Amino acid sequence: MLIWKGHGILIPIFAFLGATVLGMAFAAGYAATHWEWVLRMVKPASGWGAVLAIWLYGRTIGKTVIKTYLDPATHQQVAIKKSHSFFFIGPMIWAGLAGVMACFATVESFKKSSAELLSEYTPKASSPAATAFHEANNLIDMDKGKTAYGNTPAAEKLAEAFSQMVMMGREMGVEKTKKKSRISLSHGKFLSYCRINPDSCAFMVHVPDLRKFTEDAKRYMVEMAWSVASLHAAELKPRPKRVAVGVRGAFLYDEVVEGPVPDAKTLAASETDEDWAAGIEHRYSGSDATKHLEAYFEPHAPGAVLPTLEGGAMAGGNEPAEKQPAKAGMDAASTAQAQEEFDRLIKQFEKMEPGQAEGNVQPAKELAAAYAQAVWDGFPFAPALRDQMPHFSAHVHLRNDTAAILLGLPGEGVMPPGGFARCEPVAWKMAALASEQMMPKPSRMILILFMDGQIIKSFINARSTTEWRSEEEIEGTSHPEKLLPFFSPMTDRVMIAVNTPVKFVTAENKKAGSRSKKTTQTPASPAAETAKPAASPMTAPSPLPTVVRDWKDSTGRVMQASLESFTTPAKDAGRFKRADGQVFEVPFARLSAEDQQFIRDLAAQP
Predict the structure, then answer these.
(1) What's the CA gap between 177 and 38, in Å, rounded?
(2) Which controlled-vocabulary keywords does the entry list (predicted)?
(3) Quick one: which of 596, 603, 377 has its CA closest to 505?
(4) pTM confidence score
(5) Which of 43, 527, 599, 606 is 20 to 30 A from 137, alpha carbon to alpha carbon?
């Protein structure tokens, strides 16, 4: 042949395949890591892929073969050479030429500035809306140190609350895979973005390991995320007309749903009936999903006023996050109402008797009784002092997304020296455990400690993912304005509920909110608590069933369930019940050492 010899036509075919495979591998590597040097190697990698493929061809099936035959006529040995070439050039020479070109391409790529490189690879968006959407979508591609993003401070706060609620919904409703992913772009975080527009709101969330979910689990995640997004969008003032939710995995959106923002009654009914799909008008998947999300990223008209949050822990403003100055969380009217409620509550609390418990709703009152008893039980009294120490009083105040716990301690004349300092960590640990009785979990919580009817110290904490982090400790009555957001007027958002009957669990662990040694207690009624002598300890009933909590196995996997009962006489296995009602039996040997110790403590109780 004039063009190739032997099967030399395979040389360009191998070059094309090698360039395609290695180029796509580096492109996927950049999508997973966003490392600049990987992006610089995308085009040069195609050249080096061609070099490698041609070289492999030349060393295998394209190798020149010399065979020796015996000529029957002359009885002489005849050597026949079989080679392969393309345009009269052998594969190894082609590999060398391709290598030179790949070297030039590599040098040129690394000479470009970062801006030139990004502009070369950034797809030209068809519209400003598409550009804004791709920029927002890239923020939740992988973990960059933040969990939530938004176009305004209020949007960021909504995205953070949305992320936490979706994560809890996934833990409660979808069983985690047995095999842990080796590579996770989100590092297990539910990366979220919220876009607030004058009359609409859009949420996007990156769900870890979504590709491993069953179709039913994916549908559950979408509908649960829709319900959570509707709940949070309804907090905006003025309330948007429409909301959209996009649920994606590592690269693609599984589904996008949209519909009108439900009113308060519809939201409450949907939570009661667990009809999370209520209100969804349209569902989109594939390329349609991205196209409909882009519509929510149209540029705002000049002077457009965006909805915002009024008061509470998630208050924010209209301006973009990088431009808005710090503002107060409540307006003058809300501040005045919060001050009035706070003053009323403080006066009421000062008159409470030792051992008395109150709350702004009946379940909160029950939780306050259990909390006060748990702190009293966990306080490191000397045995001689325990019979003389009166019980503590407590008040639990729940509002839309925050909780306030007030704890009254005896005065200096009754408390042993250094008693207050020793009580602080116990009081906070019990407060963290008290939050486990609330659903949904509060976004912020304040613990206010009283002694002799005076505020001694306040602890403000915020929930970060599944843990509490300390925001501020306030001595005495300094900075009272920082306490007021926890007592501001309620909106029409569904308020935090309390599990009833309360099954409070005490703990002694290094980490607040984690439990290794537990005793379950049922609080007495307020009347019984008042009538009971302060010195008598509370009789603890059977420790089972426990509250719903995190259980870890020996590999670190987590399940949320309550331990209902022991299933063997040796108490080495138990029946667990998940929040969704599913019941299963697990040998305790499969659990972590910490949980096994906790179960041994339970089994040892009468």
Answers:
(1) 31
(2) Membrane, Transmembrane, Transmembrane helix
(3) 377
(4) 0.45
(5) 43
